[in-house]
Specification:
This protein is of the alpha+beta class. The chain has 8 helices and 6 strands, in the order βββββααβαααααα. It is globular. The termini are far apart. Bound molecules: zinc ion.
Length: 186
C-alpha cells in the first residue's frame, strides 16, 4: 500500500481491528518515509447491481455519490461519520443480497429513506423531500403523516424538528415550503 501523501512505497500497519459490524477490517498505517498516518479498509468484494435510473440509463453504483446525498440530508444533525458508514454498509449488503444484476434507483432511495427514518427524522424528511421531489402537496403530507406521533406526544416531535435558534430559515429552506401542514407543525 503506497502512502497517499508522499507516494512512498514503504508503509507499515500499526493497528488492525474489525469494524463493529464485523464485515470489514480497518488498518491504521504509517508511512516510514513521511511519517503520516492513514487508514485502509479491507472488505469482501461482491458485485453491486447496476443502477437503472428513471430515464432508463444504466450507471455503476456510486458509493461516494450515495454517501454525499446521505451526508447532505444529515448536515448539522447529531449523526457521526461512523453511523453514516454503517448505513452505507447496510444498504450495500442489502443490495448485494438481492443477487440481481440491475436495480431501479427508486429501490436504493427507499433503502436510504428507511435507514434515515430510523436514526433522524429531520434527515429523513430532507431526503424524502428531495428524493420524492414532492411534485404534489399530497406526497409531502404523506411523509409528515408517517411521522405523526401517537396522540399526546405531538410536542415531542415538534421539538425534535425544531432547528437550533437562529437557523430556522435555513432549515425551512432546506426542507420545502410547499407544504402548509409542515409549516403548521413548526
Ligand atoms: Zn508518506
Amino acid at each position: 500500500m503506497r502512502c497517499p501523501f508522499c507516494d512512498g512505497a514503504d508503509t507499515q500497519v500499526i493497528d488492525t481491528r474489525n469494524s463493529d459490524e464485523g464485515d470489514s477490517i480497518r488498518r491504521r498505517r504509517r508511512c516510514s518515509q513521511c511519517d503520516k498516518r492513514f487508514t485502509t479498509f479491507e472488505r469482501v468484494e461482491l458485485n453491486l447491481p447496476v443502477v437503472v435510473k428513471k430515464n432508463g440509463a444504466r450507471v455503476d453504483f456510486d458509493r461516494r455519490k450515495l454517501r454525499a446525498s446521505i451526508a447532505l440530508a444529515l448536515r448539522k444533525r447529531p449523526i457521526s461519520a461512523e453511523q453514516v458508514d454503517a448505513i452505507l454498509l447496510r444498504i450495500e449488503n442489502r443490495l448485494m443480497s438481492y443477487g440481481v444484476r440491475e436495480l431501479a434507483s427508486d429501490r436504493i432511495g427507499e433503502l436510504v429513506m428507511r435507514e434515515l427514518r430510523k436514526i433522524d427524522k429531520v434527515a429523513y424528511i430532507r431526503f424524502a423531500s428531495v428524493y420524492r421531489s414532492f411534485e404534489d402537496v399530497e406526497a409531502f403530507a404523506d411523509v409528515i403523516e408517517e411521522l405523526r406521533p401517537p396522540l399526546g406526544h405531538e410536542t415531542d416531535v415538534i421539538e425534535e424538528l425544531r432547528p437550533p435558534l437562529g437557523n430556522e430559515q435555513e432549515v425551512l429552506a432546506s426542507l420545502t415550503d410547499r407544504d402548509q401542514r409542515f409549516k403548521e407543525v413548526n
